[in-house]
Design goal:
mainly alpha
């Protein structure tokens, strides 16, 4: 649920209407030294918090179902954030793990790097099955943005 809302409510709209996420993650001047996890750049941390907010809004509801499961989910989610950004150190996911992740449609560091290289592809922070509908959403929002700009001229 968090990945869905993060992708469709924050990530894709930020690519179309915002500049904040794109400046932090997709600009040519970005620095991946200690990227996101160890950085002291508040913009990177703020973007991370905004991207994580859709995950956090479900905590009160999920906590009622399983506090342990909620904590485990948050820990696994954070470990996935760290793992998917190891691509900057030229990480190669071992073939058996890559096959399992591809079968389960889990975003790997290699796939996430595709998004960092081209901000119009490979959406979905945790699950890559969100990419095809995110591509459609991207085009819809882009069309709305152009219509809105044309309307106000």
């Amino acid at each position: 649920m968090g990945d869905f809302f993060s992708t469709f409510v924050y990530h894709v709209p930020e690519h179309i209407f915002g500049k904040f996420h794109s400046l932090v993650h997709h600009s040519k001047n970005r620095s991946f030294l200690h990227y996101a996890v160890l950085t002291k750049n508040p913009l990177v941390l703020l973007d991370g918090i905004l991207g994580a907010l859709p995950y956090f809004i479900f905590i009160p509801w999920l906590w009622q179902i399983s506090p342990e499961g909620t904590i485990l989910g948050l820990i696994l989610g954070e470990l996935h954030v760290i793992w998917r950004h190891v691509c900057v150190i030229k990480w190669q996911t071992p073939t058996p793990i890559l096959k399992i992740c591809n079968f389960l449609m889990i975003t790997t560091p290699e796939r996430h790097w595709l998004h960092h290289k081209d901000a119009k592809v490979a959406f979905g922070d945790i699950f890559n099955f969100f990419d095809p509908p995110a591509q459609v959403w991207f085009r819809i929002l882009l069309s709305l943005k152009y219509k809105w700009r044309h309307f106000w001229k």
